[in-house]
Specification:
This protein is mainly beta and about 325 residues long. It is built from three helices and 23 strands. The radius of gyration is 22 Å and the shape is globular. The N terminus is likely disordered.
């Protein structure tokens, strides 16, 4: 063996070995700087990227499949650090809240103030709120990304720090990029004659018998919103625990969650979910959790599962619903 030749190749082999070790042990969850903040948590697998943002309400700032973003973004909010005194309008991204909407006072400490954040595993992280002085409630959100799939588990925990029972519910308020089609499975016969109702002004008023309109239709017991209806917020009951939204980027965003039509729900009138539209800019995807009666010092939990899958949006927005159901069933199995 030529000792000179062997010596010359040794550093190259050693460098390649170190590169392989570094690549294999690269963390899937890490602290990053982005969007004007230095303490965001990024969780990634080979196809999916999640960014958690604790500075303004404990949000999911980004949820991407193959670098395609599903959540609504607002660069103008980069680096904001709002206080509880003034409500910051339309926080972007994957928001969560507590309800009922018409009964609870503003709770900006939960909604838009700073949370703590920590990495809890290779593909998991946790964000924890302050105790809200208006509600006496503290929230914990635990996020786990599947090691291979575009599947994010979002576990929410509500802790009652009051001296009396707290009556409330988990309420998801996820902002996605608008312009697509929203879907919800509804009962063949339900309390809404048209399959849905519309929120009206003043707040707390509803139209239970809206006139037919081109942006809303029902096919095969699936309620479809092709765009903003005549009133921005729609309410409806579900026949199954899922909602889905197909974006103009050919990305299907699926939410699954615990559901039982026999449960009591907190928001009047009794309804399981809603959508809110801002033209073709934003769609808010809002499954409700059931009424929770939490005794002092106790807690309640509710977990949503988020999924992304590529799915073509037809130019006429006439989606094959059999294919949609099959893809949802296969993806969330």
């Amino acid at each position: 063996m030529n000792p000179v030749r062997s010596f010359r190749h040794q550093p190259i082999a050693l460098s390649l070995s170190l590169l392989l070790v570094t690549t294999c042990t690269s963390p899937a969850a890490k602290i990053i700087s982005d969007h004007g903040y230095d303490n965001l948590i990024e969780i990634k697998n080979s196809t999916t990227r999640v960014v958690l943002e604790p500075n303004m309400g404990g949000r999911v700032l980004s949820f991407q499949l193959n670098s395609v973003e599903i959540l609504q973004q607002n660069p103008a909010q980069a680096g904001l650090q709002p206080t509880r005194e003034k409500t910051e309008p339309r926080l972007a991204g994957g928001r969560f809240d507590v309800g009922p909407t018409t009964a609870l006072p503003k709770h900006n400490t939960l909604w838009q103030c700073a949370w703590s954040a920590e990495i809890t595993g290779k593909y998991s992280a946790r964000m924890t709120s302050q105790i809200d002085p208006d509600l006496g409630i503290q929230l914990i959100r635990e996020f786990t990304l599947d090691q291979k799939k575009a599947h994010l588990a979002c576990k929410q925990i509500m802790i009652n720090h009051n001296k009396e029972a707290f009556h409330g519910c988990f309420w998801s308020r996820t902002f996605a990029k608008g312009g697509g089609v929203a879907f919800a499975p509804i009962p063949a016969k339900g309390v809404f004659p048209r399959g849905y109702g519309l929120n009206l002004e003043p707040k707390g008023s509803f139209n239970f018998l809206p006139e037919p309109e081109p942006n809303v239709r029902i096919r095969d017991n699936i309620l479809e919103f092709l765009g903003e209806p005549s009133s921005q917020k729609s309410i409806f009951n579900l026949s199954d625990g899922w909602m889905a939204y197909l974006s103009p980027d050919d990305l299907l965003f699926i939410k699954t969650f615990p559901f039982d039509p026999a449960w009591q729900y907190a928001d009047p009138p009794q309804h399981h979910a809603s959508y809110w539209h801002l033209k073709d800019e934003i769609i808010e995807i809002e499954p409700n959790g059931p009424l929770q009666i939490i005794q002092p010092g106790e807690q309640a939990e509710f977990t949503e599962h988020w999924w992304l899958v590529e799915f073509d949006l037809p130019e006429n927005k006439l989606v094959n619903l059999e294919k949609l159901r099959n893809v949802i069933g296969k993806t969330t199995k």
